[in-house]
Design a protein that fits this description.
single chain, six-stranded parallel β-sheet, alpha/beta, 6 strands, 2 domains, 48% helix, Rossmann fold
């Protein structure tokens, strides 16, 4: 039985998908040609652009503002649009997105059920101040460990960031919960942890033998059962 559970932050605990959808609707108002694109498809296109620039952003080679513009220009090019309104679309996206911050449904109830029963931590890629501000804003503190890539000097799935978290927890067994198959699931399994894949987008599972798949945290009894916690 695991004695600790570690969570990814973005799109695992914090519902970036919810805020992003509102932001993309604002983009469609600035770029009406995108109104014919289903929101699900536009979201996947945006996610692909984020992924393409992910490493450069984390390494500091792209500022947040530059990254936003790169993402929007990439979307424009995907759909054969000129990029002259990309900056306006970015402004609309960022402005709208900030009004819809929320946790993934079930997180608060799940944390209440876990506290005092298991050690809880977060392992996240990102800039230190950004990620710590999110933890404070969403009232996720205190935690038993917080491992942020900028502070640790290693990005998931590098085993060093997982080792850092486990050493701080001082436990023999832990389970990782995250939405990224490569960064969270394979990274955790690579150092002998158990893994739960949060697949809210219902993507095809690469290998069901490696991790337990869930599509959300509600009802929380499902997650508690996987972690072998009884009420």
């Amino acid at each position: 039985m695991s004695t600790a559970v570690l969570f990814d932050l973005d799109d695992t605990l914090i519902d970036l998908q919810y805020a992003r959808r509102h932001g993309l609707r604002a983009v469609q108002r600035i770029l009406p040609e995108l109104n014919k694109v289903p929101l699900d498809e536009l979201e996947l296109a945006h996610d692909a652009e984020l992924t393409a620039n992910y490493q450069r952003t984390l390494e500091g080679n792209l500022s947040d503002e530059e990254a936003h513009l790169e993402h929007m220009c990439g979307i424009c090019r995907r759909y054969g649009l000129a990029t002259d309104k990309a900056a306006d679309a970015v402004e609309a996206y960022v402005h709208e997105q900030q009004f819809y911050p929320r946790l993934v449904p079930g997180v608060e109830e799940l944390f209440d059920a876990l506290r005092g029963r298991m050690k809880i931590g977060v392992i996240t890629n990102g800039r230190s101040q950004n990620q710590r501000d999110k933890l404070e804003f969403f009232d996720l503190l205190p935690l038993d460990t917080v491992a942020i890539s900028e502070e640790v000097g290693a990005l998931k799935p590098n085993p060093e960031i997982f080792r850092y978290a486990l050493e701080n927890l001082d436990v023999q067994k832990a389970t990782m919960v995250g939405d990224s198959w490569e960064r969270d699931v394979l990274g955790a399994i690579g150092i002998g942890m158990d893994a739960i894949w949060l697949n809210r987008y219902r993507r095809p599972c690469p290998d069901r033998s490696l991790a337990v798949e869930i599509n959300g945290f509600e009802p929380i009894r499902t997650v508690l059962r996987i972690l072998r916690i009884t009420s």
